[in-house]
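Input record, target 12 of the design panel.
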């Protein structure tokens, strides 16, 4: 990882059961006076290097910083966010294409690709075509494995829901919400969606240090079957928002739109985390909510089938990771071609100019 400091880190792109999913729509809000620099350029053009340099300079100034990593290569950054000054820099190229909504007024484009020798790249176009096609093939293969894993875990979730005392769980969630979130203001809070974890070429990575950046009190929600925790976390999110608190809603990378894995409430320094065989927090936990108490005895009839589903899903996820690893290896070869065509002195000047522009806002 680029930064070993106590800095919040997330993913905004997920290798999921639905293929690659981007939540870059939640990166910044033009209506709230944010400004963004969107980087355009190919592989190896220095986009991540530029963002690391700018982030390093602002971290040295003590500026509040959030790092968004690439789930296809966790050594690279997809974006850097400076919340206090409402400024961000993002890689706007595929697969998380980002285009200006209000060009000039809120966003500006910066093209590190303008620092390369296009004639040199043209001469190697056939190799570039071949490498790009092979990378895409490996990503499609990873997507198929994750889709199959999602189907198995989704079936486990469905079976668990049949045996879940939903009314009792929702009643408990309301009581917990009232205790945890005292009414702050009449205005509803805002939700910031993020991925705390991701399936990457290095396996499933979870940014546990990020939880510690925001929360002093961490509650684990133990849920082996993936049915109860999303209901509880969704109810807590709604309670926190209704009480006027801003939340960071961390979605499951396998089910990136409808299944919460974690909930962070920075103002109250609270966090609620799903815990199971796939998610094992490496931080101190204040307490644990055991959701099995909301399961009826009928769950016993499904346990053998569900154990099989978990084991098979784990194998499929392992195959997906292997495909992502192969895609990264080939992508490294593609980057090497582009790097040879880059004028990095020009990129350094571009990075310095952007850094100075941001420092002027401090």
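The sequence produced for target 12 reads:
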């Amino acid at each position: 990882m680029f930064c070993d400091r106590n800095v919040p880190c997330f993913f905004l792109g997920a290798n999921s059961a639905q293929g690659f999913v981007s939540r870059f729509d939640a990166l910044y809000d033009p209506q709230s006076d944010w400004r963004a620099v969107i980087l355009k350029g190919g592989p190896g053009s220095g986009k991540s290097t530029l963002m690391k340099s700018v982030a390093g300079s602002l971290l040295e100034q003590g500026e509040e910083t959030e790092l968004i990593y690439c789930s296809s290569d966790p050594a690279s950054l997809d974006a850097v966010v400076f919340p206090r000054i409402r400024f961000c820099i993002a890689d706007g190229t595929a697969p998380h294409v980002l285009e200006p909504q209000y060009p000039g007024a809120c966003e500006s484009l910066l093209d590190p690709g303008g620092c390369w020798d296009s004639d040199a790249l043209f001469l190697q176009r056939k190799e570039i075509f071949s490498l790009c096609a092979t990378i895409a093939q490996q990503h499609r293969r990873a997507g198929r494995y994750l889709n199959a894993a999602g189907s198995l875990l989704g079936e486990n979730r469905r079976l668990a829901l049949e045996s879940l005392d939903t009314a009792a769980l929702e009643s408990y969630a309301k009581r917990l919400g009232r205790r945890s979130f005292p009414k702050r203001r009449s205005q509803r809070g805002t939700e910031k969606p993020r991925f705390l974890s991701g399936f990457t070429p290095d396996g499933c990575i979870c940014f546990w240090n990020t939880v510690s950046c925001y929360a002093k009190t961490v509650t684990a929600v133990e849920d082996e079957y993936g049915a109860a925790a999303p209901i509880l976390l969704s109810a807590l999110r709604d309670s926190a928002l209704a009480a006027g608190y801003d939340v960071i809603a961390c979605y499951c990378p396998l089910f990136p739109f409808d299944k919460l894995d974690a909930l962070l409430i920075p103002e109250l320094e609270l966090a609620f985390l799903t815990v199971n065989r796939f998610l094992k927090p490496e931080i101190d936990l204040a307490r644990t909510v055991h959701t099995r108490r909301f399961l009826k005895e009928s769950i016993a009839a499904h346990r053998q089938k569900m154990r099989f589903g978990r084991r098979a899903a784990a194998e499929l996820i392992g195959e997906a990771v292997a495909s992502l690893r192969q895609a990264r290896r080939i992508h490294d070869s593609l980057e090497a071609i582009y790097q040879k065509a880059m004028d990095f002195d020009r990129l350094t000047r571009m990075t310095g100019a952007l850094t100075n522009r941001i420092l002027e806002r401090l």
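The chain has a mean pLDDT of 93.
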